[in-house]
Design goal:
By secondary structure, the chain is of the alpha/beta class. The protein is built from seven helices and nine strands; from the N terminus they run αααβαβαββββαβαββ. Strands 5-2-1-6-7-9-8 form a seven-stranded mixed sheet. A two-stranded antiparallel sheet has the order 3-4.
Length: 239
């Protein structure tokens, strides 16, 4: 499915900004999988920083969450559709979107700027995580959630990370480790365990501080959902 489709845009707006009731209308559903873009940001250390980078920011929720503790945040995504939606939320405070119920029945929903976020601290750019601008700069925090295993050549991003993260800075990666040939050719996929591969790719520039598992939920309709578990790792940039 194209990341430029309106259906996927609606699903991601719902995932990022939807109410608990909208995301999981069933009492027996996996409610602990709600709020993934907020939970991944919580893996950064507490405290304020100057700059943060959100790679694969989708429709921007994690970028806005980073703005609560960062003076300058850059969100980058390959999808122009996603970036346009994130920019509308930044500039206007909200965006309306259809929420698919069943068949072709929709309900209208609104994605709103998260409380406590500082949109004036945010900027959104369309871009390719494997070919980032040379003058992008470096950051105190870099966040990339569910991005690595959607790149055709993830090594290009991983090799760039040492210059993107300031010495002593923090990197949070999340990946469901769903390596699919449609996104990543087999020659660029890990031959074995994803975590061990990441350790090998990121040494000696980064030290693994913590690893954990975070579930996430994508609602397709009121009766169909994607429930997935992402491996979340927190790394410290070595001096």
């Amino acid at each position: 499915m194209s990341y430029e489709s309106n259906q996927l845009l609606s699903e991601y707006l719902l995932m990022h900004y939807g109410t608990d009731e909208h995301l999981m209308p069933w009492s027996f559903g996996p409610k602990d999988a709600i709020g993934f873009p907020v939970r991944t940001i919580s893996h950064f250390p507490k405290g304020d920083v100057e700059t943060s980078l959100d790679l694969g920011c989708a429709v921007g929720r994690s970028t806005f969450e980073l703005s609560k503790t960062s003076k300058h945040v850059t969100g980058i995504d390959f999808s122009d559709n996603f970036i346009a939606a994130a920019e509308q939320i930044r500039a206007e405070g909200s965006i309306d979107y259809p929420m698919l119920e069943t068949g072709k029945q929709n309900k209208q929903a609104t994605a709103c700027l998260p409380q406590g976020s500082r949109p004036e601290n945010c900027r959104f750019l369309s871009g390719d995580a494997m070919n980032l601008p040379e003058d992008l700069g470096s950051f105190d925090r870099v966040h990339a959630a569910n991005l690595i295993c959607r790149l055709t050549e993830p090594e290009k991003l991983l090799s760039r990370l040492p210059e993107l993260v300031n010495p002593g800075g923090d990197l949070v990666l999340a990946t469901p480790c769903t390596w699919l040939d449609a996104y990543t050719p087999p020659s660029h996929q890990p031959a074995g365990d994803t975590l061990e591969w990441l350790k090998d790719q990121l040494k000696p520039a980064f030290k693994l501080e913590k690893q954990s598992d975070e579930p996430f939920l994508i609602r397709e309709t009121a009766r169909k959902f994607q429930w997935t578990v992402s491996l979340v790792t927190h790394w410290k940039r070595c001096f």
